[in-house]
Amino acid sequence: MDTLSFKTESATQATIQKEWLVIDATDKVLGRLGSEVAKLLRGKHKPNYTPNLDCGDNVIIVNADKVKLTGKKWDDRVFFYHSGYPGGQREVTPAMLFAKSPERLVHRTVKGMLPKTKLGNKLITNLFVYTGPEHKHEAQQPRAFDLNTIK
């Protein structure tokens, strides 16, 4: 057996095929939804995954206002922000953030599961979150995607 004939093929910008996927967040647990969407944005579900390139898909999340958290996380979990000024530390719970903007809660969850690099900043631009069932990306012909189909 000639082992030199087995070459690892890395994806290039020319060989990357990006798709548009629509995910319905109705009755999905927020953390599990976020980790699966982060995998799709990163491209880890594709056989030609390359860690240093944006080879993931564009993801549209609809019905973000119907996402759920388990246990008492709505009130017990606390996110911290700081303005940079003395005494500028702020606390916000998921319930407060959800009441103001459900899209920001889902967006923040997915962003936390992506790499904290320039590539992660590029990948998060491929995520679009909407509260209702409608979105404005019909021209891209997105296909509905079931999160239970990826491993």
Which radius of gyration do the C-alpha atoms yield? 18 Å
What distance lies between the first and last C-alpha atoms, to the nearest angstrom? 31 Å
SSE order: EHEHEEHHHEE
- Main pleated sheet: 4 strands, parallel
Helices, by number, come to 5
Q: Provide the residue-averaged pLDDT.
A: 93
Overall structural domain count: 1
Task: Outline the structure in words.
This protein has a single domain, classed as Ribosomal Protein L13p, Chain: A (Alpha-Beta Complex). Helix content is 27%, strand content 15%. It has a 4-stranded parallel beta sheet with strand order 5-2-1-6, with helices on one face. The longest helix is centred in the first third of the chain and has 13 residues, at 30-42. Helix 1 crosses helix 4 (102-112). With 151 residues, the chain is an alpha/beta fold. The radius of gyration is 18 Å and the shape is globular.
